[in-house]
Write the structure tokens for this entry.
Amino acid sequence: MDGIAVSATKRRPRFRRSPEPVAFRVTEGDVLILRELLRHRFLRSTHIAALVGRSLDRTNDRLCRLFHAGYVDRPRAQLDYYPTAGSAPMVYALGEFGAHLLSERGVDCANHVNLDLTRNNREAGRPFIEHQLEIVDFHVALERSTRGRSDLRLIHSEEIIANSPEHIRNIRNPFALRATISQSERAHDVVVVPDLVFGLMFSDGSRRCFMVEIDRGTMPISRSDFRQTSFERKMQAYLTAHSQGQHAQQFGWKTFRVLVVTTNHQRTLSMVETLRRLDMPQSPGPSLFLFSLANELQRNDLLTHFWRDGSGRATRLS
């Protein structure tokens, strides 16, 4: 297979590149790994193996070589927990050489090749990285649930953007929903950006569209000051945007649902109680949101798992 001669190491430190590399060649399979890192920002080695369809041992070997050659980075925030969780899957990010290689292959890396990726990856904090990894956990589970099915296919966010109006494709956050919400006789402009967006296309031509919120239990559900972030404010923004038809204007969707993945039953109940108190005219109300716990999704297939909407009704995504 055509490749590019680069370097790796014989004895490989975990977070420091070896000064004495040995030759290896970047393959098309390695380029696929770099593409996934560009797409997701941070990935565990287990994520990468699942996304590219390789064994974990083979994936770890290629990642190690790519790291010591400067094509991928290992964010140093992992040092916070590696001494006590040394067997945890390594986390990777796209490195500077990797971004330049993808750019040479015609991949749009304009937002990466001019940045100091190594510094950005090094300075990324642990909470931010862990949130990104939980988003990828959901995405990988979604890929596995839809792979090989003949009755439906997964519509990726890239396809949704590609089919959107040109003015939407060219903005920084195409999936951002904007809402003006009146609170305490004041108007507040609120922007909500979902963690993940996808659709399901069924064999009869119908589709269902979803926005995903991965809640780690760190954001207050409600605040007395509406100007401060809260999950209540986020839910109000989704309801208002839906009532104004922003999903139809931006993506051509008839409707959508918001999937909320959270940490425990008590937090889910608090969210639902808050949601039911909201008075949002011409919105779908509590039925717009579907709730599930993260640990339940780890045990079940995403599509056949029963989610609960804000009114308590059970439903499946498929």
